[in-house]
Amino acid sequence: MLISGKEISAAVRAELLERTNKLKEKGRTPGLAVILVGEDPASKVYVNNKEKACFELGFYSEKYLLSENTSEEELLALIDRLNEEDKIHGILVQLPLPSHLNEKKVTERISPVKDVDCFHPVNIGKVLTGEGVFAPCTPAGVMEMLKFSGIDVAGKNAVVIGRSNIVGKPMAMLLLKENATVTICHSKTKDLKEHTSKADILIAAVGRANFVKADMVKEGAVVIDVGINRNEDGKLCGDVDFSEVSGKASYISPVPGGVGPMTITELMKNTLLSAEENLKNF
Ligand code: GUN
Questions:
Q1: Can you name the residues that pair with 160 across neighbouring β-strands?
Q2: Full-model pTM
Q3: 137-260 and 27-111 share a CATH fold
Q4: Residue nearest to atom 3 of ligand 1 (CA)
Q5: Position 184 pLDDT exceeds 70
């Protein structure tokens, strides 16, 4: 069975639109500010997609396209201003930043109550304890896909390949919260296949085209592909060799049209949550 992120994303957005309209009736419109520094073409596409999603849900949005040589002081001053701005409930600084800007310092300057990316250490800490308001967008999108497909993760062996702060680590925490038995594999893992072949649920977040082959996957496993890569022909593909693995998996998500569409939906959900809660601090 194919897990279509496109379809699930549309269903979730319909629900978000209803909640947004209810909130607007009470006089509050969710507001998202997106900041892009520099000219990275992929980042421009992402930022435009975020603006479009705001428009479609009726959110208020502000977009800041700053020049490549913006100073750290200027960027931090903009974040400070947006932290204080009542119309804005979410602030997102598109990564990667140009090398003269300190990503850690910049993301930590965003108030945790407006950190809809869920990158701030305070929010990541709350993901660990399971008490956060915000969920990290990509892993939350994966959980939504599992839930929507009727896959109960409790008691299952879930294996995550990849240990990034944005995907692998928080992914493991969200699976653990739902009572999966979780293994995180990474580049130093010895005998990767031994781990992955025991997975009832396999999440690939490696960043290498067609890395997961059929012989690494258990018959009937649920396989979610977080990768966005280009193959030798320049075609978009995931971390999972779809043509091989789809014959063995019970459920599998494609690339494109899988996790990708979910990430922005979860960003919108975090922004709406922030507006609904209207927190001033934690
Ligand atoms: N760059 C690539 N993905 C993301 C994301 O989810 N958030 C931000 N801020 N930057 C990104």
A1: 184, 203
A2: 0.96
A3: yes
A4: 95
A5: yes
Please confirm, yes or no, whether 50 is among the known catalytic residues: yes
Domain boundaries along the sequence of the chain: 27-111, 137-260
Helix (H, G, I), strand (E, B) or coil at 213: coil
- Residue bearing the CA closest to ligand 1, atom 2: 95
Single-letter amino acid code for the residue at 162: G
Q: How far is CA 260 from CA 70, 142, 198, 235, 251, in A?
A: 29, 10, 26, 15, 17
Q: Compute the distance from residue 68 Cα to the ligand 1 centre, in Å.
A: 17
Residue 125 has what pLDDT?
97
- CA angle at 119 for the pair 113 and 120, rounded to the nearest 5°: 55
- Residue 114 known to be catalytic: no
Q: How far apart are CA 3 and CA 242, in angstroms?
A: 13
Tokens linked to 217: 């996957």
CB 134 within 8 A of CB 140: no
What does the pLDDT look like over 133-183, one tens digit per residue? 999 999 999 999 999 999 999 999 999 999 999 999 999 999 999 999 999
User: Is 93's pLDDT higher than 70?
Assistant: yes
- Does domain 27-111 sit in CATH 3.40.50.10860? yes
| Assigned CATH for 137-260 | 3.40.50.720
Tell me which of 117, 200, 239, 241 is the catalytic residue.
117
Task: Tell me, in angstroms, the distance from the centre of ligand 1 to residue 15's CA.
Answer: 24
Q: pLDDT tens digit string along 209-239? A: 999 999 999 999 999 999 999 999 999 999 9
Q: Does ligand 1 have an atom closer than 6 angstroms to the CB of 270?
A: no
